[in-house]
Amino acid sequence: MKITHVLRGVEWQPSTSKHILLYKAFGWNPPNFGHLPLLINKDGTKLSKRQNDITINSYRLKGIYPEALLNFVISCGGGFVQNNEKNVYIRPLSELVSKFDINLINSNSCQVPLDKLGYFNQAQLKIELNTDLGRKRTTEKLKNIVQNTFAKDKSVELDLSEKHLNKILKWSINRITNINELIHENYKFIWLKPSELAIKSMDYDIDIVIKLKNLLINIDDFTIDNLGTVLKEFSKSNNIVYSNLMKMLRNLISGLKVSKFIIGLFIFDYFNYLYILICSKVQVLVK
Which residues cross the membrane (predicted)? Predict the structure, then answer.
């Protein structure tokens, strides 16, 4: 039959003697059988293809890269010299082929920590963004995701230029595990303006907001370092805890009560619009 090796799950091991007898009964030379440890869930049950959330198509829809999934599975089952580095390392297929050692496959069942798959996907996303082709592919994919998500909302003015999308990806790379997350609730402020209702529902000190507006009108240097200094001086002179001031700015800009990403917005020049945004919020608040 020209089959030299059979690699299968360890649960087939008790049946191996019967299979060898069948080969001999037909006058065939039996192949070499190798029985691999099971991949199991955290609760100890066998990882099964019948679990809908672990199908290839499911991971594809979630934005998981094939390279990330392959390296993740390999990290569970062995076959390679262990990488002791803390950072996740994505091995290219050529390296996987050349360095695989069957003697290093784990002999015991292996738990699959699905919560760590995101780290592998983030590592592959960084690789993609470090190449011209990968970056172009990623920005185009993000553009399609955003368009499909917000296309029906005619009030949304989207900046989907390659330059702008690249800045967003650069800012978010250490915060997301795949680009689909950029349309989730905590990131919608990137694409959508907060509603008047959202603004009014939050607890602002309108006098402080107006003071900040009047301060920003005189600032010409909207850079990260300068704005950081200005905002710290503003918080100090007005007896406001700096973290509370930044929280207020997060709320004003995003309309979200929980948002951790205000400083990162400097990276793609969001603060060039800070004065305009705050002016518009003041107009809403004083209505």
Answer: 258-278
Q: Find all residues with CB under 8 Å of 125, minimum gap 6, and list them.
A: 65, 138, 173, 176, 177, 178, 179
Q: Domains in the chain, start-ordered, CATH in brackets?
A: 37-121 (1.10.1160.10), 131-190 (no CATH), 196-283 (1.10.10)
The per-residue pLDDT for range 29-52, each reduced to its tens digit, is 999 998 888 888 887 787 776 666
What would the two tokens of residue 254 be? Answer: 């995003």
φ/ψ of residue 148, rounded to 5:
-65, -30
Whole-angstrom distance, CA of residue 90 vs CA of residue 116: 13
H/E element, 36: strand 32-36
End-to-end CA gap in the chain: 83
Number of other CB atoms surrounding residue 112 within 10 Å: 19
114's CB contacts (< 8 A; 6+ apart) are 54
pLDDT tens-digit series, residues 228-286: 788 889 899 999 888 888 777 777 666 655 545 554 444 444 444 444 445 544 454 44
Compute the distance between CA of residue 235 and CA of residue 21 in angstroms, rounded to an integer.
82
pTM here? 0.70
Residue 45: phi and psi, rounded to 5, are -80, 155
Contacts of 150 (CB under 8 A, 6+ apart): 156, 158, 183, 191, 192
- Report phi then psi at 205, rounded to 5: -95, 100
CA distance 119 to 74: 14
Distance CA 74, CA 199 (A): 48
Residue 153 identity (one-letter amino acid): D
Under 8 Å between Cβ of 209 and 252: yes
Query: Do residues 165 and 51 lie in contact, with contact meaning Cβ atoms separated by under 8 Å?
Result: no
State both tokens at 119. Answer: 């780290």
